[in-house]
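Subject: for your reference before the review

Hello V.,

The reviewers asked for a structural picture of the protein, and I figured it would be easier to keep everything in one thread rather than splitting it across files. Below is the amino acid sequence we used in the manuscript, unchanged from the supplementary table.
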Amino acid sequence: MTASTNEQPVIENEETEAQTDTQAQAVAAVQAVEADIREFVRRDQRQLRRNAENAGEMFTSNVNSLVQRVAGTSLREIDTLLRELEGLREFLHSEGERVQREVAAYAHLSQSAMNSTKIISESMHQWRKLTHGHRAH
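And here is what came back from the structure prediction:
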């Protein structure tokens, strides 16, 4: 009984450590994204300060550039996803047709097996009648 009580905390510790590692990885990922965003903002701020006289045009240009980059990336990702989904749809359609063919073939095979079993059963029944009839004489 003492062995099972000693093993349970070890399992709980391993689960807790796994959860802690997962949480730490998630926090690290969030911090990395936040750092990238801060760096992006700093670069934009430095560029805007250098060109104070063209601040309005620069800001508009940066926003337009950012929107174009984000939109371009998003559109490419959407196009890629659409192509992948179309491929999956075609695959599922062909697999559905294949499964239908296999089910039909199985039904035909099953029907043939039933017919063969019926023929064999009838033949054995007739054979038994004949053998019992010959024994009686």
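For the response letter, the relevant points are probably these. The chain has a mean pLDDT of 81. Helices lie at 2-50, 55-136.

Happy to draft the paragraph if you're swamped.

O.
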